[in-house]
Design goal:
The protein contains 14 helices and 15 strands. It has a five-stranded mixed barrel with strand order 1-2-3-5-4. It has a five-stranded parallel sheet with strand order 7-6-8-9-10, with helices on both faces. The protein has a three-stranded antiparallel sheet with strand order 11-12-13, with no helix packed on it. The protein is an alpha/beta fold.
């Protein structure tokens, strides 16, 4: 049997083509927007503040500055968003894989029919997670070549730039240590060293010093010191941030990193040219000790003088050694003095012998003025009559004349009667020969005594007769010139 019931008029009310109200149903159908808003209010009211722990994933920073990401664990994923204002205050750069604790409220996003957390604050979940992020960033920067580019620090920088807090003890320690060791011109660029914005300020200070022109109104530093005191890893985290690491690694000025205490290590230390265990140690590394330099210069000057004087000293020592080996003046003169004494003795003896021989020859030759005059006449005649021999050609006549004159003078001086004029007397024997000894005189019966003005006879042993006047003397021999007195 055919069904004549109109379509949609099902008495049972199980359904129909057109939506109709039902008995007891007083709720009007809701729009999608309405239910989405209702869900949003319900979620936000119920979960107005939550703290969630999870790993960051799919981190994206939009051009507007908002950060979009997801928090996940082993069983679920929750979308998250952090608006620009809160994202700018983050003390670290959110990256995939970082385990964080996010604080905020849950809400829904009707456009995607999903719920998400609006993050107001985000922190790294514990020190282990922070260290893991530190190691991750270290490997990343090392792979990019930001570490290991070490430059030689200037020995005595004229200007030092310091990037640190202007109110802490760090700057006072650095200035005090520099003043003690080597007073230097210091420029301080004040920055935050901890908290929100610290990394950006430190990076801007490093780049600002590097942008100074040499010779400008503000002197460009020869060396930079990036410093802060000790603290926890969270306190020092700004010096692990990418902006600081890149600014230090790219600085055209050599950088000393002095962040924290000796046991603290930051990525800034790896990017710097030199790591100092403390800010005070950074000042000690930056400059030498002036007093030590002065002492070194004095020592070098002394060594230089010694080096200059060393050849002279060595030469003097060698000269003294050789002088000591040389014979002295006495040693050199002793042989000559001895020879002189010997020659003097020989000369005296020779003169005595020569005088004795002369006396003997004189006694034998019986020289008299007549004989000498005769010899002189003969020599003159021979000189005038003789023909010049070839030897006279080479010897001038004047030289012969001089020699002849010298012989005449010598003959005059050697004349045996020359001493008679000075009071001497000559004793003669009977033959008219000179008597030189008393023994010979004693054997002579008569002796003749010749004076300058005459001659007397005497008998040995008797007193001589009184001499007569020379005018009455009778010449005995015209040639001998003797006169007998009786």
């Amino acid at each position: 049997m055919a069904d004549d019931t109109p379509y949609g008029d099902d008495a049972s009310g199980d359904g129909g083509l057109v939506a109709k109200g039902r008995d007891g149903d007083n709720a009007a159908p809701l729009s999608i927007t309405a239910i989405s808003q209702a869900l949003k209010r319900t979620v936000e009211d119920r979960f107005g503040f939550v703290r969630l722990r999870g790993e960051l994933s799919g981190v994206k920073r939009a051009a507007s500055g908002h950060v979009y990401m997801a928090l996940k664990d082993e069983g679920a994923v929750l979308d998250a968003v952090m608006w620009r204002g809160n994202a700018g205050r983050l003390p670290f750069q959110p990256e995939d894989g970082i385990e964080v604790v996010a604080s905020g409220k849950l809400t829904t996003y009707p456009g995607r029919s999903k719920y998400q957390i609006v993050v107001d604050r985000m922190e790294i979940a514990g020190e282990g997670a922070l260290l893991a992020l530190l190691e991750k960033n270290r490997k990343k920067f090392e792979a990019e070549g930001l570490f290991g580019n070490v430059r030689r620090l200037p020995f005595a920088p004229k200007v030092i730039g310091v990037v640190t807090s202007p109110t802490g003890a760090v700057i006072r320690d650095i200035l005090h240590r520099l003043e003690e060791r080597f007073p230097t011109h210091v420029l301080v660029w004040p920055v935050l060293v901890q908290g929100q914005g610290a990394a950006e300020q430190v990076a801007a200070a490093v780049r600002g010093f590097g942008a100074l022109e040499p010779g400008g109104a503000v002197p460009r530093p020869d060396l930079l010191i990036v410093a802060r005191g000790g603290g926890s890893i969270e306190d020092l985290w700004a010096f692990n941030e990418e902006p600081v690491v890149r600014a230090v690694a790219e600085s055209p000025i050599p950088v000393i990193s002095a962040v924290g205490h000796e046991t603290d290590t930051t990525l800034c230390d790896f990017a710097a040219d030199k790591r100092a265990p403390t800010p005070t140690a950074a000042a000690e590394i930056a400059v030498p000790v002036k007093r030590e330099l002065e002492a070194t210069l004095d020592d070098l000057a002394l060594r230089q003088r010694k080096v200059v004087r060393r050849p002279l000293d060595l030469g003097r020592e060698r000269l003294e050694a050789r002088v000591q080996r040389l014979p002295g003046a006495e040693q050199l003169l002793q042989p000559h003095a001895q020879r002189l004494d010997d020659l003097g003795a020989r000369l005296r003896q020779g003169l005595v012998d020569r005088a004795a021989k002369g006396r003997e020859r004189l006694a034998e030759a019986r020289l008299s003025p007549g004989i000498l005059r005769g010899a002189l006449r003969d020599a003159s005649q021979r000189l005038t009559s003789a023909r010049l021999v070839p030897a006279l050609v080479t010897r001038p006549i004047s030289e012969r004349r001089q020699q002849l004159g010298a012989l005449a003078r010598l003959a005059e001086q050697l004349h045996p009667e020359k001493p008679l004029a000075r009071g001497y007397a000559m004793v003669l024997d009977g033959d008219g020969k000179a008597v030189t000894t008393a023994a010979v005189a004693g054997n002579e019966p008569v002796l003749g005594i010749r004076f300058s003005d005459g001659e007397i006879r005497a008998v040995p042993g008797d007193s001589p007769r009184k001499p007569r006047k020379a005018a009455k003397a009778k010449p005995r021999d015209a040639d001998s010139g003797q006169t007998e007195l009786f």
